[in-house]
Design goal:
Elements lengths: L6 H16 L5 H33 L3
């Protein structure tokens, strides 16, 4: 990912990609590219959630 995305922007892009793919009108070459993009977005979102969870756990854990 070259641009700096927020979690919300990444999720919105994933939803848009899923909707477009579900329509079934995407050429196979574009579909492969969009699947790679979706894979990167999923990884980004997973990392963001992990980092947020870790931060919350540190805040909530007793010292």
């Amino acid at each position: 990912m070259e641009e700096k995305l927020t979690y919300e922007q990444a999720m919105a892009r994933l939803e848009a990609l899923a909707t477009k793919m579900e329509q079934g009108t995407m050429p196979i070459d574009e579909l492969a590219d969009r699947l790679r993009e979706a894979q990167g977005l999923i990884k980004f979102c997973r990392e963001q959630l992990y980092a947020a969870d870790k931060a919350v756990q540190q805040i909530l854990s007793p010292e």
